[in-house]
C-alpha cells in the first residue's frame, strides 16, 4: 500500500521517481546479495575438489564483491544539471531562484572563475570542498575562492578554470527545505564562456555525466559563437544531450522594447534552428518545451520574500507571466532530468544485475551438471560391483557344488577302499 502511495506521489513529482527507482534497485540488489551469500555458503560446505571448482567459487565471490561496490555507487548516484552561458547572463541568479535561496554569490562584481557544484548535505551547517580533497572549508570562503580575482590573494589556493569547488548546502535550513537538493539533484555552475574557455577539458572533466544542460542566454543579445561552440562540442561528445535555453532578463527586454512579440519570435526561430538543425538534440515537437523567456531575478526575489528572507521583491510589469514561464521551465526540467538520470544511471545497474544473474545461473548449472555426472559415475561403480558380486556368487555356488561332488566321490572312494581293505 505504501509503495503504491509513493509511486503515485512519484508520478506527480518527477524528482521523487529517481528516489523511487533508487529504492527499487536497492531492493533488487539486496535480494541478489542474499542469494549470492547463500550460494557462497553452500559452496563452502562442499569439499574442495569435489564437483565445485575453485574458479566457480572465485566467480561467486567476485560477484559478491561487485554487488557491494555497485550498491555503494548507486547510493551516491545523482541527477546532474550544468548551467552554461556568458558572464552576467544570470546563471548564478537562476540557480539561486531554483534553490529558493541565495546559495551562490551573484552580481555584477562577481565572476565565477571555476566550476561550482552545489549539492545537498545532511548537517545544519554547509561547507566547501576543493574537488576530492576531503578537507572542509568554511562556507564564508565561497565568494573569495570562486571569484575570478582569487589568484591575486596568496592565502587562497590558485584555482584553474576547470577546477571544481564543491558547495555542500544543507538540504534543510532554517528557512525551509530545498526540494532539488533533497531529491539528489546536483547543480553545476560553469565559468563564463567568455573567459577563454577550454571546452574539451571542461566537458571531459565535468559534463560527461550531466543529465541536463541549461544555457542561460541574455535576451537582450543573440547567442555568441563561443556559446554555440560549447554546445556543438557537447553534442559531439554526448549522444543527444538534453539542452534547455533560458532567455533571461526578459523583464529588461520587455521594458525597453516596443515590438517585444516580434523580438520573441525572432529569438524563438534562432533557438529552434540551433537546437533542432544545428545541434540535432531535439525534434520540432520537443523544442517548444525547451525554450523559455524568464526573469530569474524576479523569481528569486519573490521566492526570497515568500520565505521571509527579504522585505521587498523586485518585480517589473508582466512579472506574473514570466513567473509562470519560469515554473513551466522547472516542470519540464524536472521531468527531463529525472527521466534521463533513471535511464542513464540506473539502466546500467539494471543491466549489470541481469548479467550477474546470468553468470550465477551458468555457474550453478555447471556445478549441478558435474554433481549429476558424479552421481551417475557412482551408480555405474555400484552396478559394476553388484555384477561382480553376482558373478562371485554363481562361481561360489558352482564351486560349492563341485566341492560337494568331489567330497562325495572321495568319500565313496575312501569307503570302497576301506571296505575292500576290510574284506581282503
Ligand atoms: P552570472 O555571471 O551568469 O552567474 O550572472 P549573475 O547571476 O551573477 O547575474 C549578473 C547580474 O545580472 C546580477 O546583478 C543579477 O542581479 C542580474 N540579473 C540576473 N538575472 C536577471 C534578470 O532576470 N533580470 C534583471 N533585470 N537582472 C538580472
Provide a descriptive summary of the structure in words.
The longest helix is centred in the last third of the chain and has 105 residues, at 319-423. α4 (91-99) packs parallel to α11 (296-306) and α7 (199-207) packs across α8 (225-237). With 424 residues, this protein is an alpha/beta fold. The N and C termini lie far apart (116 Å). It is built from twelve helices and ten strands. 32% of the residues are buried. Helices cover 58% and strands 12% of the residues. An eight-stranded mixed sheet has the order 3-4-2-7-1-8-9-10, sandwiched between helices. It binds guanosine-5'-diphosphate (GDP).
Features:
424 residues, alpha/beta, two-stranded antiparallel ribbon, 12 helices, 58% helix, elongated, binds guanosine-5'-diphosphate
Low-confidence stretches: none
Termini separation: 116 Å
Average per-residue pLDDT, rounded, comes to 84
Helix content: 55-70%
Strand order of the largest sheet: 3-4-2-7-1-8-9-10
Largest beta-sheet characterization: 8 strands, mixed
The class by helix and strand makeup works out as alpha/beta
Amino acid at each position: 500500500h505504501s509503495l503504491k502511495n509513493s509511486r503515485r506521489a512519484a508520478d506527480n513529482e518527477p524528482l521523487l521517481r529517481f528516489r523511487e527507482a533508487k529504492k527499487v534497485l536497492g531492493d533488487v540488489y539486496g535480494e541478489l546479495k542474499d542469494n549470492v551469500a547463500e550460494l557462497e555458503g553452500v559452496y563452502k560446505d562442499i569439499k574442495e575438489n569435489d564437483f565445485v571448482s575453485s574458479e566457480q567459487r572465485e566467480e561467486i565471490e567476485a560477484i559478491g564483491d561487485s554487488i557491494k561496490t555497485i550498491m555503494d555507487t548507486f547510493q551516491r548516484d545523482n541527477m546532474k544539471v550544468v548551467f552554461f552561458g556568458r558572464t552576467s547572463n544570470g546563471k548564478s541568479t537562476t540557480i539561486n531562484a531554483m534553490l529558493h535561496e541565495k546559495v551562490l554569490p551573484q552580481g555584477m562584481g562577481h565572476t565565477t572563475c571555476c566550476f561550482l557544484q552545489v549539492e545537498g548535505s545532511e548537517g545544519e551547517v554547509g561547507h566547501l570542498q576543493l574537488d576530492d580533497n576531503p578537507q572542509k572549508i568554511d562556507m564564508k570562503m565561497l565568494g573569495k575562492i570562486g571569484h575570478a580575482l582569487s589568484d591575486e590573494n596568496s592565502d587562497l589556493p590558485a584555482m584553474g578554470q576547470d577546477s571544481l569547488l564543491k558547495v555542500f548546502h544543507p538540504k534543510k535550513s532554517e528557512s525551509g527545505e530545498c526540494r532539488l537538493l533533497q531529491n539528489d539533484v546536483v547543480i553545476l555552475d560553469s565559468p563564463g564562456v567568455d573567459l577563454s574557455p577550454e571546452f574539451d577539458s571542461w566537458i571531459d572533466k565535468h559534463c560527461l555525466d550531466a543529465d541536463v544542460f541549461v544555457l542561460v542566454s541574455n535576451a537582450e543579445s543573440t547567442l555568441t559563437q563561443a556559446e554555440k561552440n560549447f554546445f556543438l562540442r557537447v553534442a559531439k561528445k554526448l549522444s543527444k544531450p538534453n539542452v534547455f535555453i533560458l532567455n533571461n532578463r526578459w523583464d529588461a527586454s520587455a521594458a525597453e522594447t516596443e515590438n517585444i512579440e516580434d523580438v520573441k519570435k525572432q529569438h524563438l526561430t534562432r533557438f529552434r534552428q540551433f537546437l533542432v538543425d544545428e545541434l540535432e538534440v531535439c525534434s520540432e515537437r520537443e523544442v517548444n518545451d525547451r525554450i523559455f523567456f524568464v526573469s530569474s531575478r524576479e523569481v528569486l526575489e519573490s521566492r526570497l520574500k515568500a520565505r521571509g528572507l527579504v522585505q521587498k521583491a523586485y518585480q517589473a510589469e508582466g512579472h506574473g507571466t514570466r513567473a509562470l514561464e519560469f515554473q513551466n521551465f522547472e516542470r519540464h526540467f524536472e521531468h527531463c532530468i529525472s527521466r534521463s538520470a533513471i535511464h542513464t544511471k540506473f539502466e546500467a545497474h539494471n543491466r549489470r544485475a541481469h548479467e550477474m544473474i546470468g553468470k550465477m545461473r551458468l555457474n550453478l548449472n555447471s556445478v549441478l551438471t558435474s554433481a549429476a555426472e558424479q552421481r551417475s559415475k557412482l551408480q555405474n561403480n555400484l552396478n559394476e560391483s553388484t555384477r561382480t558380486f553376482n558373478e562371485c556368487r554363481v562361481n561360489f555356488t558352482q564351486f560349492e557344488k563341485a566341492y560337494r561332488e568331489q567330497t562325495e566321490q572321495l568319500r565313496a572312494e575312501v569307503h570302497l577302499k576301506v571296505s575292500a581293505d576290510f574284506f581282503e
